[in-house]
Amino acid sequence: MGLIWLVAVAVLATLLLWWAFPILARIAGFWIFLDSLLAIVFIPHRAIPGRLWLLALGLFLWLAGHWAHAFKHGEWASPIALRIFTLPGLRWMIPRRTLIYFDDPDQ
Question: What secondary structure, in 3-state letters, does the chain show?
Answer without folding.
Answer: CCHHHHHHHHHHHHHHHHHHHHHHHHHHHHHHHHHHHHHHHHCHHHHHHHHHHHHHHHHHHHHHHHHHHHHHHCCCCCHHHHHHHCCCCCHHHCCHHHCCCCCCCCC
